[in-house]
Amino acid sequence: MNRCKQVLLMAVSFLATFVSAQAQWSVAFQDQSKRDLNVVFFLDSHFGWVVGDRGIIHVTQDGGQGWGPQDPKVNANINDIFFRTREEGWLITSGARIFRTDDGGDSWLPVYQLSLAAGRDSRDAPDFYSIVFPSKKLGWVVGTHGRILFSNDGGQRWQAQESNTKEELVHLRFVNERRGWVVGDKGIILFTDDGGRTWERQNTGVNGHLYHVETRGKDTAWVVGENGIILRTTNAGETWERVAVDTRETLVNIAFTNNNQGWVVGWNGTILRSSDGGKSWVEQESGTRTNLYGLSAVKNGIWVSGAEGFVLKYAGSGK
Q: Quick one: average pLDDT of 210-231?
């Protein structure tokens, strides 16, 4: 084979590999306003929601083939959304407000707002970032100034739990009604095994901003954060190990479909995939350089949302 043909075949092979990598992720939807879509949440393989800045909500009931708008009647940034059933859901917005729906998001009712204390500077205004209900009655919210709020009556009333920190708390995950983690600024990880009556700070070995925690079972969890931070524990956080990755991008979300298959998303179009339970990660070509924020992994569907109103879907095998 002459040199010219060899170079041509190499170029064709590279192009085929690049096109294949690009095809792994496709644009499933784009909001016409092109505002940031902060969270994508799929309850199952059919029902999903994507939310974003200035009150954006879109819902799908057919696995992402079609998306329709919902109107929460609030012109605020939606920071998180959580559905416990197809009808019962929650969202939190800037301004430290909590909303509830009992009809799948067709209507949203405000149920709680944390106001700025008298005499405080508006720059100190409280905010909520993450909400979860591991059961019908029990729910938690976290936010600025180390706030952890708890409800034991299905979200009708909320009360503070002592976090013993003033750091910003960004995300929480509960594996059952008693055991959960919270992550946030300056490498903080808080752990409870008594339903939040006490929160214990766990040693992470990092001081960067942590954005998301994911769990599988009672003892295994992963955390992602700025500067390519990925942490992993298999003993409920008694020890956390930092996983080496070939990126320094800020990583903001992580999700697993089973004990082995996981994804991470972050700034500048970063998508990482693991096939060994998060022990190692390989970067995928996302086809975009916009910041990615939201990630939802359910059976037969991996979804990502981000800046400029994009929703991406993974076209490869998620098994």
A: 97
